Amino acid sequence: MRRATCITGLGAVSAMGVGVPALWEGLVAGRSAVGPLTSIDASGFGAKLGGEVKDFSAKDHVPKHYRKAVKIMARDIELAVVAAKEAAEHAGLITRAGLPEGQTTGTTYPAERMGCHIGAALIAAETVELTTAMATAVKESDGEFDLQAWGGAPGGKGAMNNLTPLWLLKYLPNMLASHVTILHGAEGPSNTITCNEASALLSIGESMRVIERGAADVCFSGGAESNINHMRLARLQLAGRLAATAGDDNGGDVPRPYDAASPGTTPGEAGAVVMVESLECAQKRGQKVLARIAGFGAAHSPPPQIPPFAQRRIEPDEGLALSILAALRDAGIGADAIDAIVPHASGIADVDTPELGALRQVFGTRLKEIPLITLTPNVGHSLSGQAGLMVAAGVMALTTQTLPGRLHAGSPPPDARAEKSSSRSVNLRYIVVCTSSLGGQNAAIVLSN
Amino acid sequence: MAQQRVVITGMGWVTSLGHDLETVWSALLKPSSGVGPITRFDASTFETNFAAEVKNFSLESILGAKAKEHAGAGLHSQFALGAAMQAWKQSGLAQFAGLDRRRMGIYFASGEGPLDFGNFARTNLASWKPETRTCDAVAWATKAATTLVAEREVEQEPNLALTHLASAFGCRGPAFNCLTACAASNQAIGEAADILRRGDADVMFAGGAHSMIHPLGLTGFIRLTACSRRRESPQTAARPFDATRDGFVMGEGSGVLILETLEHAMARGATPLAEIVGYGSSADAYRVTDMHPDGRGARAAMELALKQAGIDARSPGKDGRPQVHYISAHGTGTKENDRIETRAIKAVFGDLAPRVPISSVKSMLGHCIAAAGGVEMITCVLAIRTGVLPPTLNLHNPDPECDLDYVPNVPRDVRNAGGVDVCLSNSFGFGGQNDTVVVRRFIA
What we know:
The complex is a heterodimer of chains A (about 450) and B (about 450). Chain A is of the alpha+beta class.
């Protein structure tokens, strides 16, 4: 008998604000938090709108003794750390973070039974920080960067010394999990999955498997990423994934999921962490179960060319279909049992079309009866963090038996229930959360109440 | 359903000492060092100006005409493709007509792709405003739009090596990439084995590929004071467990294994090279900069892996030897790692610790970071299959805190001393993630 797993806590930092209540309230109200970018002058980029987390610093959320460490946290890490804190508290867990400094007893679980799987991106170095140092090693002759002045040996007096010694640690993808494990004293299995949009779902799937095989009882699980920085905006723009927007647009016009004319997606930033827990352990400690994780599946679809830019694709994404079918099989249910879907819904037409094809393959003509929960029009796209938000929204829909409002300014095909709508009460038993990714990795989970 | 046994049926690597199993293995047993001056960029004034670079590598010589489909692949992806093709050929899967590619997945540990450093630097500098010491975002974006090359930027995504591999071999099953720094490949091998054990796939590619031999990668580690600065003597700079060690030497490359359920391997008449029998993952949860002083996480990873393998580390086997016959140490050559790893091994093996041969091939191949665990798992399997242990090179001055048997400087032929049946491989990451894998001689 495999151990059943469930979700007992949710944490999210998104453009709607800090916390799952802010996210859910905004989604139910059908509000868009996408607006003109303020933390960066985006007038030189194609995309001038985004889903930014405003007035946010992890300093306001970590224990006093840990505030200094925020200095070596890239934005992505801050987002993950704050989301993890909310998830643990929501799950009623006492971790090291909730104990007086130095105290090691009194936690809900022994340290080695707590795992951590937080998906992450290739974190972009902060431009000002790095350039401030790089500008001290420029050749006068041609203005080019001077590697010899940067190194400066022998003697070690090179310009690279203008970088803080711990500079690298700020940007290693595994530092999201590292800080979370340190703060909460989670000494069990720990991983950092880096598959772009699929990172968070693959991480939640791995937490499920780790608990199933008995290697942990509870895991921090999800993902985080900020796209609101020079390098990420440039890369996404070069890859053809961002809609060009004007700075004075209101949010809500883009992205337009499953509209064949949608011009691309909108950048965002988010951290989303859920507590995945053994059902038996959660029940034993009398903790409210928010949702069961009934099944997980993953599969790969080779892109037509590499590197995999947004490109004209019309055929169904076979890997996405296979991952949903694997998750359904893992849950022991058929496609007819699914009451709602939280799909990737990026608003990149050449990604949406194959995804919709995959949904048609799995759900057939019944697809037009299954409501979709779409997030990108509300909060933008945070890539490695996005699927974590999708799971949080899915769990909230299950626990409140409510479909959030949906924003949409375009015309999705009639069998894709992505049109503009208000929130409403529904009966939900099983929902699927699924995503494809730039690179071809796909993942799906089945949640049930 | 009973859990599946997991065997290795193919292996391949690309390292600083060569690009095929035999060449690298004989170089390790010679022993020789793959370390030399950095040629990939002008590192002449870097305090560490040497590394174990892959030399004379041509993807076309391994992939043939197929190499064209991966013409824009980042260097690490090229290493991965080269290593995976060797593994694929050895596995014989290409000749197996019944292969279901939806049951063939991949769990990889790729690092970031090569930064397009020149254009990156130009873009940053174009935005610099010395008067205010700020960067002008508009100038940055304008320069980026005309300077950065889309293909090179996308190739840096950490999941791209995985994408190249899956495309080259037609993997349609579960696909993951993890990047737990230096522990990543071991984690990939362990999790891939679990996917096979539960029956979610029949075949998994596992391993890693990485190169941090680029200006910012090297800068980052130099600033952390993690790299050896023995500029006068690069080939003896990597000296794990030696009292005079002063940091690791950067390596690069790829190690790829093909894992398969025993049932699937047997049904197609494949020869298992070895069996994956244990995997443990843990976190130090201590500090981002330091390992736990008692090696708490390292110890936990080893104990979990041994427990899954059904091995009692503190009891000798029937032949009177310790039940683990070789430990491929994380053995980076930093002051901290080697001391703490030694302490953790002693805690796990108790009185038997001095009798377990340990070595670090990082003394010869440098530290391949995310790829290290893949490369080192292959050395474990070759140790099992040949009965010879690769040495720890450059170990001449014993450190009182590192007082175990590190197979110093000379390979050890143990064929007449019972051979090698069980190996344990350690990988510990910056930031505290630890992974251990136990591999055993395959016995039906």
